[in-house]
Specification:
The protein has about 725 residues and is an alpha/beta fold. Helices cover about 30% and strands about 10% of the residues. α2 runs antiparallel to α4, α2 packs parallel to α5 and α11 runs parallel beside α13 (about 310-320). The chain starts with 8 loop residues before the first strand and ends in a 14-residue tail after the last strand. GO terms for molecular function: ADP binding; ATP binding.
């Protein structure tokens, strides 16, 4: 039995009689804290008959070895070395070949021993040599027993299954498929997915784990590993198939000359799917043979990947980007590895750096940013895309090697700052820190006068320093996840350049600062707070005429929206979620003429979406609304009046209704007035869904004209569904 972790090493040296070249077998080495006693046993062949076959040196380092049993140990050791259990461990620990060599060596020694035993009676030296060799076999058996013990223990308690291979092979993808497989999910009451970054910080890692799980007693030992799963590259045919899928729109037969060049390009990718996908995406829109030849014959292939860890294929993809996208891509390095960021966050970051410029009076910077993201997506720089609000909000990640590429080309303009790093340049423009206190934030503000993007997510202070108002260049401020912050200083309203402000998850925030109306550049705002009225008695929401996105989430005390909401004349997206005390919407909300997306979700007391006032003026509303989602509204009994009247009937494209059990029927006039409605999705509304069943439902004729219909996820009309989710950003 091993106490804690046993420290043991077995090494065998055999000498070819002619070359005397040693062959060293290292089976395993594990550091043991409390064991410092080692002993070395060296046995050499002394009998001339034995030295005709070989010289032999057996070196053993071992702690707390057991007593030996019998000379027949030689047969037992060989038997154990050949067992399936030992072979499994040898394969897992990467010593399979060495174990086979050891087996061959011991077999040879055993054959010699049969002859040596007969002659030991007449040779004192031979008898002494055999005794020492016998002891060595005893110790070898103990070590083999340790291997067996580890193998058996792992079968009882599997903790870690390592997956190894070069970057880009799909290790994370494979792990993700296993993690989400229903056969795996059913075996575990608790699952956690945590990314360990290049800069290993055990404290941050533990905090990530605690975020994933709040209960249970997870134990882990780094010796609890089963067989190593080494991922090999794709075979050439599979790589070529992937390449063709990424690079050709109309099929390979149409461009046989390009396919031949593509086959040669694939050969250079060495079976790495990431490289194949990147180059295939790069060539997707290129049909000139010269473009393909230039990729195949590029000097970039001759660069040593080991110099900076960036694959040649990724470099080629980067170099092919237009200049403005090179800058935007490099700036993605400000997000941490494996970070799931949204299009809203990324576009706001680009805008903070001034990388997006409107090309015309009617072109919104957010729309230009969307085009940039789509271009980078088409070139496989982003992956794991998850749609949250169809056509509006989605999240994605960067492969870790793609992130390395962005960091490589971002330096020295963009630096990743360590909390404890010294000599940080004063002209830092982007900084991200977590779990910081007020004194640290003060120090940052004092030092980084030119900063444009400050991410203090998951920090731990009650008040933002007054000095925040001195950051005249600040465009992006993330305070989300701070469970202690209670107030924002009025000086924050002096951040006239600020475009992105997120207070999501600031559950103790008592109110928004007076004078928030003066932050005239705000374009994206996310709010969590304790206030009953969204903007209080603020006079001047009319000044926030740049605001595009407003998200109100987890405001537990919120009862009313501000009556000045109609002043937000540029607002395009409004999300109201998890506000259980909200009893009414402002009737003026309907006069948000630029609003394109309205999401109202999990507001338990909300009975009506029409607001307080009634009258003819209410029907002239929402002149641009395209997507409407309302869900988890148990008190909602009817669709809003404005939905079927006025401009909305000519603009609405998608309607999503989820978990509104009191909504039992559609209006008598049906949804025929929504002439541009392309998608209707109804979930968890039992009575309403029953009435909307194909042909037989009482309300079927009211919706039969809609091209794409889903009832509880079941496709009623021909449509590839994208289930609506919203993202708290």
């Amino acid at each position: 039995m091993i106490s804690h972790r046993q420290d043991w090493t077995l090494s065998i040296q055999t000498f070819d009689q002619r070359s005397q070249t040693p062959l060293l077998l290292k089976m395993c080495h594990v550091q043991e804290k409390n064991v410092g006693i080692f002993w070395l046993l060296t046995c050499q062949a002394l009998n001339p008959i034995l030295t005709m076959f070989m010289g032999f040196s057996l070196s053993l380092c071992l702690c707390n070895m057991a007593e030996s049993f019998a000379f027949a140990i030689a047969d037992r050791v060989l038997g154990k070395l050949g067992s399936a259990l030992i072979q499994e461990v040898g394969l897992a620990w990467g010593v399979k070949t060495e174990l086979e060599e050891l087996n061959d060596t011991l077999s040879t020694i055993r054959a010699v021993l049969l002859d040596a035993e007969e002659k030991q009676a007449t040779s004192h030296q031979l008898r002494d040599w055999l005794g020492k060799l016998k002891d060595g076999f005893y110790d070898a058996e103990d070590i083999v027993d340790e291997f067996e013990y580890e193998a058996l223990r792992q079968k009882v308690n599997v903790s870690v299954i390592p997956i190894v291979g070069i970057g880009g092979l799909g290790k994370t993808t494979l792990a993700g498929l296993v993690y989400n497989d229903e056969r795996v999910v059913g075996q575990f009451s608790t699952k956690m997915w945590v990314c360990v970054s290049d800069e290993f910080d055990i404290e941050k890692l533990v905090k990530k784990i605690l975020k994933e799980i709040r209960k249970g007693d997870e134990s882990y030992s780094d010796s609890s590993m089963v067989q190593l799963q080494k991922i090999k590259g794709l075979c050439h045919d599979d790589c070529l198939s992937l390449f063709v899928k990424c690079s050709f729109r109309d099929g390979e037969d149409e461009y046989p000359n390009l396919l031949k060049i593509g086959d040669q390009i694939v050969e250079k990718c060495a079976g790495v799917p990431l490289a194949v996908r990147s180059l295939g995406s790069l060539l997707y829109s290129k049909r000139d043979e010269w473009d393909w030849v230039s990729i195949r014959d590029s000097e970039i292939w001759e660069l040593e990947q080991n110099e900076d860890g960036i694959m040649a294929a990724l470099r080629l993809s980067y170099y092919d980007l237009p200049y403005h996208l090179k800058q935007c891509f490099a700036l993605c390095s400000v997000f941490a590895k494996d970070f799931e960021f949204s299009n809203v966050e990324l576009i706001s970051t680009w805008m903070a750096e001034g990388l997006i410029h409107s090309s015309g009076q009617n072109a919104k910077m957010e729309d230009i940013g969307e085009r940039y993201i789509n271009e980078l997506l088409s070139r496989s720089f982003f992956q794991d895309v998850e749609q949250r609000i169809p056509g509006v909000l989605y999240t994605f990640k960067m492969h870790d090697l793609v992130h390395d590429l962005a960091m490589f080309f971002a330096q020295p303009e963009c630096l990743t700052l360590n909390f404890h790093k010294k000599d940080i340049p004063k002209r830092v423009q982007h900084a991200a820190f977590s779990d910081t206190d007020e004194s640290f934030v003060k120090a940052c503000i004092l030092r980084f006068k030119c900063i444009r993007r400050l991410d203090l997510q998951d920090s731990n202070f009650e008040a933002l320093p007054n000095s925040i108002g001195s950051l005249k260049h600040l465009r992006y401020l993330n305070l989300s996840g701070n469970k202690r912050i209670k107030k924002l200083p009025n000086s924050i309203c002096k951040l006239y350049h600020l475009q992105f402000l997120t207070l999501f998850g600031c559950s103790e925030l008592e109110e928004l600062p007076r004078g928030i109306w003066s932050m005239i550049s705000l374009r994206t705002v996310s709010i969590t707070m304790k206030q009953r009225d969204l903007f209080g008695k603020e006079k001047g929401l009319r000044s926030l005429n740049s605001l595009q996105h407003l998200q109100i989430v987890d405001c537990l005390n919120l009862e009313f929206l501000s009556k000045g909401m109609e002043s937000l004349i540029q607002l395009r997206i409004l999300v109201i979620s998890d506000c259980p005390s909200l009893v009414s919407l402002s009737h003026n909300i309907k006069f948000l003429t630029a609003l394109e997306v309205l999401v109202i979700d999990n507001c338990q007391k909300l009975e009506s979406m029409d607001g307080e006032a009634e009258g003819q003026e209410d029907i002239q509303s929402f002149g641009s609304l395209q997507i409407l989602f309302f869900g988890d509204l148990p008190q909602l009994e009817a669709l809003p009046r404005w939905l079927l009247h006025g401009p909305t009937s000519n603009t609405l494209h998608q309607l999503h209704i989820s978990n509104c059990p009191s909504l039992r029927a559609l209006p008598e006039s049906g949804l025929q007035k929504l002439v541009y409605l392309q998608k209707l999705e109804i979930e968890d509304c039992p009575e309403l869904i029953g009435r909307c069943k194909t042909e037989t439902g009482e309300d079927w004729q009211k919706i039969a004209h809609i091209p794409k219909i889903y009832l509880d996820g079941e496709k009623i009309a021909s449509f590839s569904v994208n289930t609506l989710k919203y993202q708290k950003y």
